[in-house]
Design goal:
The protein is of the alpha/beta class. The chain contains 12 helices and 7 strands. The chain is about 45% helix and about 10% strand. The radius of gyration is 32 Å and the shape is globular.
């Protein structure tokens, strides 16, 4: 009888100890918080909130300096000069720019082909947009682009702006000048230095475009040069260059023909080459060796 009572008492004590242990295991440790999903992903031990905040801020700051994503952790740092690996050249403008990739003879396509394995040429032309309308969408135009990778922004606007007042898209010359400066200032606020911006004046009218006059376009071309130069931005006087051409250089009112595209590239390329050399530190050689020298067999 005494043996049975002792046995029951021992079992009761053992049961109570097991219960206490299970309860303690299910309770959080004093002074700690459950880990969030992102913290579990990195498998890190929990740190005090003040230290954790400092580390997060430092990680984001270092990430921005070293080329990490905004999250900071878990990415391989980019090597020095990474932004020059694949420079970007952005073409902005109206239909003359948008249609520059339309056929292989167009000036944008010629430029992209000339810079294959050297730089990426991105077409951001929008047909029938004047300077004011284009300035309104500039944020969307630049969305997703890293300004550190942009070697040059070429802006060719003014053809629509310089239409006669009765035609859609016309804006007064003062508004055009203000629009040029507005685009430059916005690009600079987005991180594009003025040395990496080139404004091209509107070209000469053509037989396909009866909505303006040569004198009007010439006035807008001069206004473009004056507005951009006042902000120390380079310009290319396309109007004066096109005026010397006796042959037809337009395919229609919104695009150049083969002759016009090749001529525009002949006056544009020296500027692009110089800007690209400045950006890369002198080299614009093609990346990767030719197959015959890199492949064995």
């Amino acid at each position: 009888m005494i043996f049975i009572v002792i046995h029951l008492l021992l079992c009761s004590v053992s049961f109570a100890q097991d219960t206490d242990q299970k309860q303690s295991m299910n309770q959080p440790m004093t002074g700690s918080q459950p880990m969030t999903g992102s913290q579990q992903m990195y498998g890190s031990q929990q740190m005090p909130s003040s230290q954790q905040q400092t580390m997060t801020s430092q990680g984001q700051m270092d990430g921005q300096q070293m080329g990490y994503s905004p999250q900071g952790m878990g990415y391989t740092p980019r090597p020095p000069g990474w932004e020059k690996t694949w420079p970007k050249i952005i073409l902005m403008g109206d239909g003359l720019t948008e249609n520059s990739f339309d056929v292989t003879s167009s000036w944008g396509a010629i430029l992209a082909n000339k810079l294959s394995r050297v730089a990426d040429v991105l077409n951001r032309g929008v047909t029938v947009y004047n300077t004011v309308l284009y300035g309104d969408i500039l944020k969307q135009i630049m969305e997703g682009l890293d300004p550190n990778q942009i070697a040059l922004v070429i802006v060719w606007l003014g053809t629509v702006d310089a239409r006669l007042p009765q035609f859609p898209g016309f804006i007064p010359i003062q508004s055009y000048s203000s629009g040029v400066q507005r685009i430059i200032e916005r690009l600079q606020r987005m991180g594009i230095r003025k040395q990496r911006i080139l404004f091209m004046t509107p070209g000469t009218p053509n037989s396909f475009n009866t909505q303006t006059s040569s004198k009007t376009v010439e006035d807008y071309a001069k206004a473009c040069i004056q507005a951009a130069s006042s902000l120390q931005v380079d310009t290319l006087d396309v109007f004066s260059k096109f005026k010397t051409q006796a042959t037809q250089i337009y395919r229609d009112s919104n695009s150049l023909n083969v002759v016009g595209s090749k001529y525009l590239m002949s006056i544009l390329w020296p500027i692009v080459e110089n800007k690209l050399r400045e950006f890369t530190g002198g080299s614009i050689t093609k990346k990767f060796p030719e197959a015959k020298t890199s492949l064995k067999g």
